[in-house]
């Protein structure tokens, strides 16, 4: 692999972000993005990009495994400035997931790609991307979108417990990819999805519904306060997971999928 895996000049000149901050290695791009989001004059979207994360964070206490060749970055968005109302902020994770799906399909046209609500992208039946969306304290209207995609980091070198559940683009396609190409494809698609969210376009909701891997499956969901099992009916227009349970139809804004079959 090249010593510098990204074409930073190309990223900066793309017009897809306002500022780029690159790190050869960093603990967590979302932690750094949190620091930058506190700056009132920060020009958004602001990109924090890393060749490697040593302590990338997933949802809850999860950690994102990262090796050379992975694509790991965080975006600082100014949701209020862009006109995205707070009630649609929870949909940002799905929008990011949809963007990653489309970018992977652009690189691997015959790929089997889908969304595992609320924040994972699956490729060929295994996890290839994790997304973490956070809103910094203080009510600034800023959102942090952390994305980790397994691109050129073959899972052959991953811990054994991950090889059964995760994959990478290089493992599926059998060839390496240009990380800058993949990043720019995701940023471009994500920009489109955000625009659709701001405009509340109904076609957007159908696009993420057709990608939902859980639809028609029996799902066990941990809400944090209880565990619920039901038949998944898909994702509604608000981005909520819809389950048919013994108590009736229930909708969930957030939670962790324990299992699905």
Mean pLDDT: 90
How much of the sequence lies in strands comes to 25-35%
Rg result: 18 Å
The first-level CATH class of the largest domain is given as Alpha Beta
Structural class: alpha+beta
The sequence of SSEs as H and E is HEHEEHHEEEEHHHHEEEEE
Shape summary: globular
CATH superfamily of the largest domain: Bira Bifunctional Protein, Domain 2
- Main β-sheet, spatial strand arrangement: 1-2-3-7-6-5-4
Distance between the termini: 38 Å
Biggest β-sheet strands, sense, barrel: 7 strands, mixed
Report what the structure shows:
The structure is a single chain. 28% of the residues lie in helices and 28% in strands. It is of the alpha+beta class. Helix 4 crosses helix 7. The termini are far apart.
Structure in a nutshell:
This protein has helices at residues 8-13, 29-37, 79-82, 92-107, 160-163, 169-173, 179-198, 202-209; strands at 19-23, 46-50, 71-78, 113-116, 120-123, 126-134, 142-149, 218-222, 227-235, 241-245, 248-252, 256-260. It is α+β, with helices and mostly antiparallel strands.
